[in-house]
Amino acid sequence: MNTLLRLENMTYMAQQKTILSIPSFSIKQGEIIGIMGPNGAGKSTLLKLLSLLDSPSEGQIFLKEKPLSEQKITIDLRRKFAIALQQSLLLNTSVYQNVALGLKIRKLAKPIINDKVEYWLDKFNISHLAKKHAFHLSGGEAQRVNLARAMVLEPEVLFLDEPFSALDFPTKVQLLKELKEILNSTRTTTVFVSHDLLEVKYLTDRLSILMNGKIQQTGTTSEVIEKPNETTASFINQWKEFIH
Length: 244
Ligand SMILES: Nc1ncnc2c1ncn2[C@@H]1O[C@H](COP(=O)(O)OP(=O)(O)OP(=O)(O)O)[C@@H](O)[C@H]1O
Prior knowledge:
Blueprint: E1 3-14, E2 17-28, E3 32-36, H1 43-50, E4 58-63, E5 66-67, H2 75-78, E6 81-85, H3 95-105, H4 110-123, H5 139-151, E7 157-161, H6 169-186, E8 189-193, H7 197-203, E9 206-211, E10 214-220, H8 221-226, H9 233-243
Parallel strand pairs: 3-8, 3-9, 6-7, 7-8
Antiparallel strand pairs: 1-2, 1-4, 4-5, 9-10
Helix pairs in contact: 3-4, 3-5, 4-5
The protein binds adenosine-5'-triphosphate.
């Protein structure tokens, strides 16, 4: 698999503190990679850097092996990415308009917008909610809208920051199943930040464990879970004990 995004010698400082220090990290085209770690490890900060919402203090980000300092970080570049967060942050309008907004901003023709929105509403099983006001949805419905709003943009990379953590177990399981099918069929490169090893195990191909601002282990998800190293063992084993 080709490398799509890569970080090299990256540090991120805030208030004279090193929040992240990552010599090397890459995301392969078409994979679903998980980033897990304890609270405050730097997961959301890493996601912001990878999605170009923030810039590293030092180091470089490469997109398809081109350093991004050479390409200006333009709106076009940012538009290759879509992000879905834990709080769906839907706008004060209908479900349909929430999903259509990103395409309207991109100035696509109305019939094309309509086709794409209908397609993604259907994919996430929310066509029946199209006219409903986004503020009147259940948590599970809102997260479906949030994911449809991201996928309608047909992103090169989808960034997910704890999208399931506020959902009850059956809702989470159902949505995880559907999302996995969608991501596999579209082969969307996905970076998935989560606290939950069950979610990560189910959804991701590879897994990186971030602790104290450093990536302590990366491998296939089953490898990291089955064979944690000296540093990650306490974190992973705690989860394994809890699951069994
Ligand atoms: N702009 C900033 N200024 C100061 N400290 C920051 C800033 N951004 C992040 N931090 C600190 O960096 C650390 C990592 O934060 P981050 O939110 O990335 O962690 P996280 O792994 O996503 O945590 P959680 O699992 O709790 O969401 C935290 O200690 C946080 O307080």
